[in-house]
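Hey, resending since the last one bounced:
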Amino acid sequence: MKIRFIIIAAAFAALVSCSKVLDLTPTDRVSAKTIWETTENARYSVNHLYSYIWGYNSSPTEAGLTEALTDEFKYTSYNFNAMAYIPSYLSYFESTVTAQTIDVYLGKWGSLYVAIRETNEALSNLAEYGKMSDQDKTRLQAELRFLRAYFYFELIKRYKDVILYDEDMTAITKDKAISTESQGWDMVQADLDFAAQNLPAASEAEGRINKGMAYAMITRAMLYAKRYDAVLEAAGEVEALGYRLEANYADGYAKSLAAGNREAILQYTFDYANGITHSFNAMYSPGGDFAINDMKGGAYGVPTQELVESYELATGGFPNWAPWHGTTTNTPPYALLEPRFQATILYNGAAWKERTIEPYVDGTDGWAAWKTEKEPKGRTVTGYYLRKLVDEGYDVTTSGSSQPFTFLRYAEVLLNKAEACYKTGDTDGANAAVRAIRDRVGLPYADKTGDNLWKAIVQERKVELAFEGLHYWDLRRWEVAAKAYPEGLTGYQQHGLKIEKDGDGFRYTYVSVDDKNRNFPERLYRFPMPESELSSNALVDQYDEWK
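The structure tokens again:
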């Protein structure tokens, strides 16, 4: 170390002796001034922040997909890991589930504030160093304010009252008090309004954040804020921009924007050739896809019987599932269920990749007993596999997947509008939006009022938007999650069907895939503030629910 220090010191002395003015421009990194002077360079910095959108959607919690915290989805492994037993453990919510446990597995406080700080630094640097045209500067500011609103939305929906920072970097202090939830929503709304007014339409956005995304995000965020007039106004703007439901349900979320998807609003794309891929298919493809290639994998999580029973018949109304709540050789009415079921869930006998799904004991896909077989390794514990969002063209022998993921689509905007109409007394508007959703999949609908209309909106949100990361948060924001099942998430267990060959047919046995009843305490309507913030910030205190 001493020799190296001497050499560096000598070099520094020589440098000083040869010049009256020492050049302090760093040669090993690009300065903020260089990055933010031009539109081209600034866009690269903004692009980095885009990656957070994928992160908060593909990994909404450290435990896995939030559907596993509801009645929709079951992680199959009994090992005490994320995307294994931990989601079930959190759903049972016994005394061992502490504030620290919730922070580790469900909270995103630290990572969201990292994203917010980076975004605020970008806004500050843009204002100080930007030498591009006023038009480009305003557009970049609008993109950044959309991102900041997105991050604060994710923060407020988890914690309600949070610490607010803007692009004034001189105002950052070690100790800072929380603001009210209403103040937080004020900031989110102001940022999204600015973005909506100053971003180009999708046709002119060159794949970047656009006006439609901002208006659609307003319809989502302002439902949480209970600012229903803002939801309705923004929904009208989305429609005016030309977004429409795709004729085919699956196309609404799976078809790429490049292929002409008119329903997708915010879609995250990948590029296999350049190694920009994701692992969703590797995690959730049916186990048989691996087995036929002498591999084991897939099926980290699988749909539940409860979700299956949430779907109507294609002709309307619900089948009677009572015969399958015991043991029977009757074939379940899968073929009679509506198109969204067929597009969402793979079941015994379903067509998939030029083969037939075999989720039964000793079948190609296989069945495993929850808890007894701790590592199913691709076998289902419920008799089902996920179809929605899984790419049927994915080759399990390759690494990485590149199909796009849609995080905001027009169907959600319509359902956001339906809810806002209901909350503001516009029964006709709510019915019209629900009818549009059902018409797309050929389901009949008769206008409803009061509680029946609300139940219809809740039903459509659950099945239309299944596995799009919304159901758990809906139940929390409606503050019904703590109620008894089926309205809430308390006092029930998830189930599946154990399927066994029986002559030329099958025997179906109703089985629980939980150790005990699930429980959602009211205090989970707000996640606890992490200890790291409490110990470093003298002006905050733990939320009352977690003291």
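The longest helix spans residues 134-159.

Sorry for the duplicate.
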